[in-house]
Amino acid sequence: MPQLRPIRSLLPSRSAGLSDADAGHAVTRRPVEPTPAEETVVNSAVYRDGRKTATPATLSEALASLPDASSMAWIGMYRPNDAQLYAAAKQFDLHELAVEDAIVAHQRPKLERYGKTLFVVLRAARYCDETERVEFGELHIFCGPTFVLTVRHSESPDLSAVRRRMESNPDLLRLGPEAVLYAILDAVVDGYAPVVAGLQNDIDEIETEVFSGAPGVSRRIYELTREVIEFQRATRPLLGMLRGLSAGFEKYNTDEELQRYLRDVTDHATVVVERADGFRQLLGNILTVNATLVSQEQNEEMRNLTQASYAQNEEIKKVSAWAAILFAPTLIGTVYGMNFDHMPELHWVGGYPFALSLMMLTCAGLYTIFKRRGWL
User: Fold this and answer.
1) Binning pLDDT at 50, 70 and 90, where does residue 134 land?
2) What is the DSSP string of 174-197?
């Protein structure tokens, strides 16, 4: 097994940042003790033959409390820091690469085997009704021959419920660490059911909003699509993990009851993955329909705007035509109304009837022309 990284390297140097004068007195200061790993342990118990036999206060005490190979220690840690996790790794002889993955967090769901120890990464999900959002949590499980060490980086999943369930079923608990692993897998997968129901409800609401023309529905479709994609990333790798566990049934002599148990978990996980895939495809179709409806609505608005513009142009043509008709007699009257002494027809007896006739003929001619062109 590779040598674990020294815990000392994870802690800042006590003399870092001291001046030369202070450095001489640094050795006389009281050393800073690292935070013990037990401060992040939220639950610790030792089981034998399916019954709790001890509740150790420290990790070393938990290992010392194992009377024989048929016993099991189940330790739960919540958000340990680097030094605390490395301290626990030293106690349980965990592989350094698995420990580094647990420290970094934000891992994809996976299953890896380091000797006799299984390292499992799960992503739990929880649907929040208040915000209509899906919250994701991360859980790391180290499953050895005589121990189960769980490291949670979020509130979900609630492993206390899993522990109560297993303690109430000694026949299942006496099957050992693998039974605990499968129970945790089952709890995580069962936790996906409310998420699926919540996403389905959101999709139904979006469909109603799309066909009712609600504003901002495109943004909601996009945000929900992002949640579904994240949900797929949390659930899709489970099928490969479960197949990997199933492939090792014969090699590791897995109990038949646990095999049935794992098959049931696989069935539930398959349904969840299929529903998530369906959600993503449905949201893609909804987005296409919404784009089509928006395009149709825009076309309708453009058509209405064009019709309004056409009607406005018709009115403008009528006004312009009448303005031209009325302008002709005004022009004639203005010409004959000029007060010059030497003007043709100024003293003509028939000048007034002639001017009126000219106005009428001009107006009639313009009216006829505009009428034929459809302006009037």
Assistant:
1) very high
2) TT-HHHHHHHHHHHHHHTHHHHHH
Q: Which amino acid is at 166?
A: M
What are the tens digits of pLDDT across the range 272-294?
A: 999 999 999 999 999 999 888 88
At 32, which amino acid appears? V
The confidence score (pLDDT) of residue 341 equals 67
CA 370 to chain centroid: 65
Distance linking the first and last C-alpha atoms of the chain: 99
Greater confidence (2 vs 329) lies with: 329
Q: CA dist 61 to 12, 81, 96, 152, Å?
A: 29, 21, 22, 22
Cβ(52)–Cβ(45) below 8 Å: yes
pLDDT per position as a tens digit, 298-342:
788 888 888 888 888 878 888 888 887 777 788 777 777 776 666
The 8-class DSSP code of residue 29 comes to S
CA–CA distance, 35 with 219 (Å, rounded to integer):
46
Pairing mode, strands 51-54 and 71-78:
unpaired
Two structure tokens written together for 319? 């006004």
Burial of 215 (0-12, 13-18, 19+ CB in 10 A): exposed
* Beta strands at 71-78 and 110-114: parallel, antiparallel or unpaired: unpaired
